[in-house]
Amino acid sequence: MRDTASGHIESKGSGIGHKMQESIWYKGSTSKATNSLSSSSLSANFDSSFFSLMRFSSFLVLAPVFATNVFACPGKSKYGFIPPKPTDLRGPCPALNALANHGYLPRNGQNITIRNVLQVSQDVYNIDPALLLGVAKLGLLTSNEPDSFTLDDIKLHGTIEFDASLSRGDFALGDNTHFNETIFSTLANSNPGVDYYNVTSAGQVQFQRLAESERTNPNLTNTDKEIQFRSFTFALALAVFGNVTTGVAPKNFVQIWFREERLPFAEGWARPACTLDPTSVTALTGEIKEASKWTSSGGCPYVRTGQGDAPTLDSKAICKQLDSLTQGH
Predict the structure, then answer these.
(1) In angstroms, rounded to a whole number, what is the distance separating the alpha carbons of residues 83 and 299?
(2) What is the pLDDT of residues 27-61, one digit of tens each?
(3) pTM summary value
(4) How many domains does the chain have?
(5) Domain, as residue range, for 89
(6) Mind listing the pLDDT tens digit for each residue in 255-288?
(7) Which helix or strand (DSSP H or E) is residue 234 part of?
C-alpha cells in the first residue's frame, strides 16, 4: 500500500518547454456497424485489469502512424486558456474539456479522433497511449460518425459516462453533462485539515457519492464497469496533478481542473515527469476501488453505441439473454 498519509508530493516536472520524443500511436477503424459484442468480453476480470474491459471493441483495427508534438508553452496564445463559447461543445469529462479549453483539442469540441486524444494526452498529461486506447475507442462508439466524435457525444449514458460521478449529476436525474458544484462539494470538502487528496480520501468520496446516488436515483447504474470508471477517473486526477506512486495530489490543482476545466500552470503545475503507464495507474485505480468499499447495485455491465435515431447496440439486453440461457430459462 502507499503511504497515503504523507503530505509530501514530488514536484519534478519536465518544464513547460520540455521537448517530447516522437511517439507511435494508433488510429481506429472507420467501421462499426457490422460488429457485435462478444459475451466473453462482458465477463472480463475487472479486478485484475481495468483495461480488459476495453478490449471488447476489437473491431477498431489499429494502424501505426507517427505523431507530431503539439505541447507548447501555455503562455502562447495558441494554447492559452479560453472558456468555451455558447456554441462550443463540451461533455462530462473534465480532462478532455480542459484540453479543448486550452486548444490542444479543437476548441469547438468537434471532430475529435482517437489519434487526437492519444497524442495530446501524452503531450500534456504524459499519459502512455496504451492507457487510454480503450477509453478512446469507447469515445468513438458514442458517435454516429465513422472516425470522430464530439465532446458532447460522450455524455451518452452507459458507455463512458457513469452515475455517481465526482462532478456531474446522474443521467436519470437530469443534467449529466455540466459541472455541478453541489455534487463536487463531496470531493472538494474531503480530507479536511490538509491541502492534499489521497487514496483514503478518494475512497471515502466515492463511497459517499455512491450512497447519495443510491438514495436519490431509483434507476442507478452501478456495475463492475461503473466502479472501474469512477476509480480510474480519480486515479488519473491524483496521478496527473500529484504523484502516481504515493497517490497524493494538491487540492488546488485538482479543484481547478474540475471546477474551471483549466490546466493549473499559473499555480505551479507542470507535466508529470514520469509517464503514467497502465501498470502504475491500474495499481492506483485498484487501491482507490478497494478504499471505496464498493458494492454492486446489481445489473449487467453494458455499452451503448450511437446517438439519436441511429441504431444502438445495447449489450445489457444481450447480457440478460446470456444469463437466462445459463440459468436454463
Answers:
(1) 38
(2) 333 333 333 333 334 334 444 444 444 443 333 33
(3) 0.75
(4) 1
(5) 24-326
(6) 999 999 999 999 999 999 999 999 999 999 999 9
(7) helix 224-241
